[in-house]
Write a structure and sequence with these properties.
Helix content is about 35%, strand content about 25%. The two termini are about 30 Å apart. The radius of gyration is 16 Å and the shape is globular. The model has no long low-confidence stretch (mean pLDDT about 95). It is an alpha/beta fold. It has six helices and eight strands; from the N terminus they run E-H-E-H-E-H-E-H-E-H-E-E-H-E. It has one domain: Rossmann fold.
Amino acid sequence: MKKRVAIFISGGGSNMVRLVEDMADPDHPATPVLVLANDADAGGLAKAADMGVPTAVVDHRPFKGDRRSFEDAIQSELDKVQPDLLCLAGFMRVLTEGFVAPWDGRMLNIHPSLLPKYKGLHTHARALEAGDHEHGCTVHLVTPALDDGPILGQARVPVQPGDTADTLAARVLEQEHRLYPAVLRRFAAGETAPLYL
């Protein structure tokens, strides 16, 4: 039986699109059951709907200062579709331990750095400031600690002379679009050994 996948987004959802496109393969071990955004204006919602995936919005703003109620509202949407796995794909909200713990071992995230380097934001600028010769992206299991879970896959890109944060980000994003679908496909089939591209 295919694993049921819910994908969380905050913006345009390019990684979400690649995940859904890959899951369209009849031989894929997973199927998308929901794309959830924390912003009704997230561009990825229309893309998901166009691909036939149900969508939901749980706007974080009315819950200001009450993350538990925000997360309870997210869980309420998940309860309707009963996913087996969660994929964070550009979801720009930090989830609390109370939400993460019940999903232990079943929630994936993609981060634009070679973890454990550069947890958090502004990863491309930080790699350039450090004079790194390579950069990349990581898919990992989500734990209560930010960007800290077991690594499921990484893809590397060289840092080129004259790179800016934007040019580096664009090359890393290309690798994200390769890595995340490949890792999800393997993970849904029970393969947890890290994949290196």
